[in-house]
Design brief:
This protein is an alpha+beta fold. It has eleven helices and 13 strands. It has helices at 6-12, 19-70, 111-121, 154-163, 205-208, 210-254, 271-316, 323-353, 366-377, 399-415, 473-483; strands at residues 128-134, 137-140, 170-175, 180-188, 197-204, 362-365, 384-389, 394-397, 422-429, 435-441, 487-493, 497-504, 524-527. The chain starts with 5 loop residues before the first helix and ends with a strand.
């Protein structure tokens, strides 16, 4: 996977619309599609139910006509399972399964008499019209008012007469500029057979579908209103959720080398809030890193200025013809260069100690580590090195870094205490379950006003203490302790001595790995 460079990233960012707009557009699109699919499906299903109901009623009308003409009336309207009847009704037509036998046989002199009875018995329903024809000519109209008159539709009448010329019942749909009708035409011939009757009934489909159409018009208005509400709420919610991102962009734009204090307010406990807190943490680390780098550069410039000035000054007044002066100046320059080299080594050690990711944590026997540090410290200088106590515990630490920090404290104690004086070191687990690694000297001590300053880079206690060293030793110790999640504590009194302690957490969990005997070991003095 190739990582884009900063220049490529800037070229790639060409937003045509904001994230807020894209989120809202996606929500509205999905919502609209859902509403359209749901509404269209419901509308089609409702429309089909209405049209099927019309066909069932026309089928019932056709069966009722056949029952009246044959003398067997239907007991109640039925819903047929088969297609529209196609047999011609006549005096000898058989009764339908849902018909009941009349009290007395009914006979008709001719088709006109039968058609008149049909027109009297069958009352048109709402949105229905009817017409009785004799030999293709209108002869009877319903006695009740109907929403439309089939007499005024000669094209439908002509079509029905033509379709039933073979004597079969026909069902169809008629559409013109003003009507959309579903009709059934039932022909029959009875009596003397001198004439042919035709009963024509039709339903206005537009009127039948009016309620359904009205319902879904209302649905459409409600859906549009719902989309508007969803859009407004989505715009507001998306704005609130994306506010940290906008503030992040504004904050990032406002941060400069001289202004790095801007941070993003953390509101809520969701994923975006967690991202905001993470970004703030990153900004804090960057700010701390830049501040430390600037401070380090300032301190290094200050510390290197003195040896450079000294070397330059001596070389400027050097008399090349004087061998003795030349040797003295070269020796002084080499000494100053050695001091600068030592300073650079300490700066590198400090930089490494501040990188917590470089720690190699592993189980470490503190008792053995204490004895090893005591043995190594005993060779540093002519002091009485005393092993005061050892802690029988195993903890996860970077033993190499802890040894480095502990020996730095030992070297610091040796520098600021007189030769032959007592220097003690030891380890224990205190009542709070913290591991303490200390070095105690009988030196000049550190005034209370300078105790915080000695941990700063190039910081020294001025009163009564020599100025040897780079001034980074205690900063390195503090960085190593912080890298382990611990700290460095100082107890000192001028003229009495000092005690530096490296305090590491979580040592109580390692007590089970060693014997439970917590008595202090006898003190051992190692004269130099």
């Amino acid at each position: 996977m190739r990582v884009m460079t900063a220049g490529e990233a800037r070229l790639e960012v060409r937003p045509r619309s904001s994230v807020r707009v894209r989120i809202l557009a996606s929500i509205l699109l999905v919502t609209m599609l859902g509403m359209v699919v749901a509404g269209a499906t419901s509308y089609v299903a409702a429309r089909e139910r209405v049209l099927t109901g019309v066909d069932e009623r026309l089928t019932t009308v056709a069966e009722s006509v056949r029952g009246l003409v044959s003398g067997q009336e239907l007991a109640a309207p039925t819903t047929p399972d088969s297609a529209t009847p196609s047999a011609t009704a006549g005096p000898s037509a058989s009764a339908s399964p849902s018909a009941t036998a009349p009290d007395a046989a009914r006979t008709f002199a001719n088709s006109t008499e039968a058609l008149e009875l049909v027109m009297q018995r069958l009352i048109p329903e709402r949105n229905e019209g009817a017409l009785g024809l004799i030999d293709g000519a209108p002869a009877f109209i319903p006695s009740t008012a109907t929403p439309f008159s089939l007499v005024d539709l000669p094209a439908l009448v002509e079509r029905a007469v033509s379709e039933t010329a073979d004597g079969s019942v026909r069902m169809g749909t008629f559409v013109d500029a003003t009507h959309a009708l579903r009709y059934v035409a039932v022909p029959f011939t009875v009596g003397d057979g001198s004439s042919t009757a035709l009963y024509l009934a039709a339903y206005d489909l537009r009127a039948e579908l009016a309620d359904t159409n009205s319902t879904f018009q209302t649905y459409s208005l409600v859906a549009v209103a719902a989309l508007i509400v969803v859009g407004l709420v989505g715009w507001f919610v998306a704005g609130r959720l994306l506010r940290p991102l906008r503030e992040l962009r504004e904050t990032a734009a406002s941060i400069t080398g001289s202004n790095r204090s801007a941070r993003i307010p953390v509101v809520g406990h969701d994923d975006v809030s967690a991202l905001t807190a993470t970004i703030n943490g990153m900004l804090d680390r960057l700010d701390g890193s830049l501040t430390a780098q600037r401070q380090l550069l300032d301190d290094v410039r200050h510390e290197l200025k003195t040896p450079i000035t000294i070397v330059r000054g001596h070389f400027e007044i050097l008399d090349p013809t004087d061998p003795a002066e030349t040797r003295e100046t070269v020796a002084l320059a080499l000494d100053e260069l050695d001091r600068m080299s030592e300073l650079i080594d300490d700066i590198e050690a400090l930089a490494v100690s501040e990188q917590q990711g470089l720690l190699s944590l592993a189980p470490c026997d503190v008792l053995e580590l204490t004895e090893q540090v005591h043995a190594k410290a005993s060779a540093l200088s002519a002091h009485r090195w005393v092993l005061e106590q050892t802690a029988p515990v195993v903890v996860d630490v970077d033993a190499r870094r802890i040894t480095q920090a502990w020996l730095q404290l030992a070297d610091n104690a040796a520098k600021y205490s007189s030769a032959g004086s007592r220097v003690g070191l030891g380890s224990l687990v205190d009542a709070r379950g913290e591991l303490r690694l200390w070095v105690r000297d009988e030196g000049v001590g550190i005034p209370a006003s300078a105790q915080e300053r000695v941990f700063d880079r190039f910081g020294r206690a001025e009163t009564g203490r020599s100025q040897t060293g780079s001034g980074l030793g205690l900063s390195i110790v503090q960085s190593i302790a912080r890298g382990h999640g611990g700290r460095v504590e100082l107890e000192s009194e001028p003229g009495v001595g000092s005690m530096f302690s490296i305090v590491l957490p979580g040592a109580d969990a390692g007590l089970a790995s060693k014997p439970t005997d917590t008595t202090s070991e006898p003190q051992r003095e190692d004269p130099a």
